Structures are given as structure tokens and as C-alpha cells.
Description:
Elements: H1 3-46, E1 52-56, H2 63-70, H3 77-87, E2 100-104
Antiparallel strand pairs: 1-2
Helix pairs in contact: 2-3
Amino acid sequence: MSAGSLFLNRTKRSGYHLLLVALVLALVVISGYWRLQELLDLGGEIGLSGSNKTVVVSEGDTLWHIARKHGPAGVDTRKVVATIKQLNGLNDAQIAPGMVLQIPE
């Protein structure tokens, strides 16, 4: 096998590796974009900028219970919980009786 032939095979392999890396990178970018769109759509779907109502947390309440009971009808409860957390600056789902929460309508 000549040196030129070895160089050509190495060049082809490098090209395939480069193509593979480009495809993986494209998939990562596209999936990241979809996730970002999902997060951005959260606010528009249930009105982060719209009207909210105030709910006082009672003994035994959870964010999930409050979201199902007081959140907008027909919206995925997970999205309502995420919006409640965002509206009220909550880092987790820990709430306590007497807390006042803003709930999307």
C-alpha cells in the first residue's frame, strides 16, 4: 500500500468522524432548543403575565393539591406547579400553612 493511499484512508476516516461529531452536536442543539421552547411556552400557556389569584396555604396542602384545585382548568398540573413556583420565587415544593401564594388563573 502506498503512502498516498494510507493518507487518503486516514482523511476519509477523519471526515467520517467530523460528520459524526457534527450530527451529534446538531442533535444536542435541536433537543436543547425544543426544551427551551417548552419552558418558554409554559408562561404563555397559563398566563405568567396574566391575572393571578391569591391562595393562603392551609394545613396539609401541597403545591400539587393547590395547583389542581385553584389552577386553570385543562392545563397540565405539572406546568401549573412550575408556574406557581416561579411566580412565588420557590426553589422547591416546600410550603407551610399561612403562606400566601400567587396562582395563575
